Each structure stands twice: as C-alpha cells, then as structure tokens.
Amino acid sequence: MTSQDIFGDDTLVIAGTRYRSRLLTGTGKFKDLDETRRATEAAAAEIVTVAIRRTNIGQDPGEPNLLDVLPPDRYTILPNTAGCYTADEAVRTLRLARELLDGRKLVKLEVLGDQKTLYPDVVQTLKAAELLVADGFDVMVYTSDDPILAKQLEEIGCVAVMPLAAPIGSGLGIQNKWSLLEIVDNAKVPIIVDAGVGTASDAAVAMELGCDGVLMNTAIAGAREPVLMAHAMKLAVEAGRAAFRAGRIPRKRFASASSPIDGLVG
C-alpha cells in the first residue's frame, strides 16, 4: 500500500503546478555546493530558492554554478530578491533572473526594510508586487504576519503569500500562531511560512496550523549536521501536514480514559 492509497492526492499547487513536497529550501549558507546538493536531496525539496544577488546561476561564467548541482530540469529554481531594499531594486533583480532562467515566471519577492531584523518593508513590497504581477510574473511574496496585508497581496494577484513566523534566521520558532491562523483561514492561495523556523518541531507546528508549506534555509544550513537536519525537516513537515488533515482531539481540562469504562464486567 502506497502513501497515496492511505492519504490520497495531497499535492501543493502553486501557479498551476503540483508539488509533492511541502518543504521549500534555500541554497545559501552551506559550506559548499556539494553540501547544498546533499541537503536539498535529504529534504526532498522540489522548489529551491536562490538569492540572485549572491548566487551564481550563470551570470558569472568563470565561477561555480549552482545549476550544475541543482539542475532546473529536476528542481523548480525560485529566484528571490534577498538584499533588496526598494521596489525598483527588486523588480530589476527579478527581470534579470527571468532572463537567466529562460523566461521562467515564478519568483519570490522580498523587500527588506531594516538591516538588523530583516523585517519586510510592506509599502515597498506592495509596490513591487503590483509591478511584477502586471509584468506577468507569478509572485510568491515574503511579508509580515499582518492578516490585512496578506489579503491585499493575494488580491493584487500573488500566487502564494509567505508570512514570517519570527525574524529571518532567528530560529525562534512560531511566535505568532493566532496571526498565522487568521491568515490561513482567510486565504485562497497557498500560505507558506517563511523565516523563523529553528528545528523540526517548529516546522510541524506551522503545518498543524494549516499552513500549506514551510520555506527554510538557516535552520538547515546552520545546523551541526545540515544533511541530517534536512531529513528531520522533511519528516516534520509531512507529520504536521498529516496531523492537520487528521484533526487533533479537543483540549480538555480533565482526564479522559483511553479505554472506556462503560460495560466493564463487575
């Protein structure tokens, strides 16, 4: 019996494409490209995000190319705008990425507002999202955990909204359960937690809340054993998703016997 026989078709759909994995991974901060490859394989990720301003995917012919270890015919390469602080910077960066990736439209938008916390500049994010959607991009967008803003980004036409769970790279875990629940409950596009995950239990919690996926980089690349942590994150995302679909029992103040006492002899 296969997992599909047990769980049915539970694929993640983004911009019309189906993905078996709900774990998206980054490609930065690893010690070398071989570790990047091994961790990505251990995570069973199908979508990998790439910082165009920091990673060579062909713009520097003499340098090692990420696409040699993570080929686009096997992975969905998701260019992102890490390091951009204005809408104009972000739009220019993603137009370059589109040229480098033979016209692929799926991108991850992030416009930062502060170098210390890496919190998003939501005004510039909205502006960039409008420009990119109008230019034909399929935009996955990093944002704060504001439910109103998340809905506005969806209405602009973003194909996925990616609220932070805690500051980028902090490893603090899910700090905003109620905000995430509100975003999930009102969304008609995938909601993918982006930033703040530190360990496997954090990823499981995000999925148990009903999020459609989790994107992480530092939690894997910064672990003592990145490849092993990638495997742990894969299992956590799968477990959290299964638990969400199964439906947890209600919380109660008092005990409830595992074995019913009704009908006991004597």
Automatic annotation (TrEMBL):
According to the lineage, what is the superkingdom? Bacteria
> Which Pfam families does this entry report, sorted A to Z?
ThiG
**Pathway(s) served:** Cofactor biosynthesis; thiamine diphosphate biosynthesis
Description of how the protein assembles with itself and partners: Homotetramer. Forms heterodimers with either ThiH or ThiS.
What subcellular locations does the record give? Cytoplasm
Looking up InterPro entries in the UniProt record yields:
Aldolase_TIM, Thiazole_synthase_ThiG, ThiG
Q: Which CDD domains does this entry report, sorted A to Z? A: ThiG
Name of the featured protein: Thiazole synthase
**What does the UniProt function comment say about this protein?**
Catalyzes the rearrangement of 1-deoxy-D-xylulose 5-phosphate (DXP) to produce the thiazole phosphate moiety of thiamine. Sulfur is provided by the thiocarboxylate moiety of the carrier protein ThiS. In vitro, sulfur can be provided by H(2)S.
Query: Mostly located where?
Result: cytoplasm
Alphabetical UniProt keywords:
Cytoplasm, Schiff base, Thiamine biosynthesis, Transferase
Active-site feature positions: 108 (schiff-base intermediate with dxp)
Query: Organism classification, top ranks?
Result: Bacteria, Pseudomonadati, Pseudomonadota, Gammaproteobacteria, Lysobacterales
Q: Where does 1-deoxy-D-xylulose 5-phosphate bind?
A: 169, 195-196, 217-218
Catalytic function, reaction form = [ThiS sulfur-carrier protein]-C-terminal-Gly-aminoethanethioate + 2-iminoacetate + 1-deoxy-D-xylulose 5-phosphate = [ThiS sulfur-carrier protein]-C-terminal Gly-Gly + 2-[(2R,5Z)-2-carboxy-4-methylthiazol-5(2H)-ylidene]ethyl phosphate + 2 H2O + H(+)
Tell me the enzyme class: transferase
Q: In this protein, which residues make up the domain named Thiazole synthase ThiG?
A: 14-260
